[in-house]
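Annotated sample (chain length 181).
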Amino acid sequence: RRSTGMIAVIDFETTGLKAGIDEVLQVSIIDENYNTLFNTYCKPLRHKTWDTAQKINGIAPQMVISKPPFLLCREKVKEILTAADEVIAYNVDFENSFLKAYGIYIDPGKWVDPMIMFARIYGEYDSLHDSYKWQSLTKCAEYYGYKFKAHDSLEDVKATLYCYKKMIEGRANNADTSNNG
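Output written by the structure step:
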């Protein structure tokens, strides 16, 4: 039985950045206690190579050739995310665009994006866009002293959860020490 307040942290590694054109190569989901709920490599159906993405994520065609395509994982992923009260992703727009491309729709109210939270904390202001500049997960993890191998989706979700917890902790500590909330 799921406890209330269950969270799911999701990350994809893909053949590229364009949802609907590019495909999922790896998907990982963990819960709030770092338990792996889902983690698998996926074989793309349309792409045979993805050199640019491979340089970043290290996922070679031979690593995924015998794996199921993401379409076969879709129902399980949807089930986990639907059951969660919060769905966390570092750069929600990216993960959500791929989910939508595969026909998975998550209630927008469930999404939490530590990237947006961290942009404010890090405080690098971008006057051109009149907002705080988004920082990479690597930079966020460094800020909180967390070491990991970036661009492996299972490593990325663990780093995302760690950073998210640190930000929530910081928020609670700031609330405790400030008089005007």
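Annotation: Residues 43 and 133 are 34 Å apart (CA to CA).
Annotation: The mean pLDDT is 94.
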